[in-house]
Amino acid sequence: MVLSVSGGESFSLSAAQRSERNTLARLQRSHATEQLYQDLWHERKTIAAVTAHHLGQISSSACTVQGMDTWSKGQFNICIVIQVRHSDVEFSRKIFRCPMPRKVGEQYSPGAVDEKIRAEAAAYA
What we know:
- 6% of the residues are buried.
- Strands 3, 4, 5 and 6 form a 4-stranded antiparallel sheet that branches. This protein has a two-stranded antiparallel ribbon with strand order 1-2.
- It has a domain at 1-42.
- The chain has helices at 13-18, 23-42, 44-55, 112-124, and strands spanning 2-4, 10-12, 63-65, 72-73, 77-85, 91-99.
- The chain is α+β, with helices and mostly antiparallel strands.
């Protein structure tokens, strides 16, 4: 049996049993990350609307969330690539950064994601 985690890493059941790392926790984190990607993808229209609003665009149709294959993931955030149409020939790319709830302790302290976003916005200001 082969087990897979996000990032393309896979290992056998016997290798997992020999490993000193908590394989079950790795699989759960991988599943949580994949679920977050899917949840964000399903909210892509909302993400486009929020981006358009903050950029002062007239219509959310001016913003298009790019495919999940263009997104990047760090230790604490998922960065969603958004293409913004300024005119028929002029485009730009923006990044919509979303914290990963499991990395900031949202399950233990509800509101931790909101606090992280507010603190980062204040730091940028």
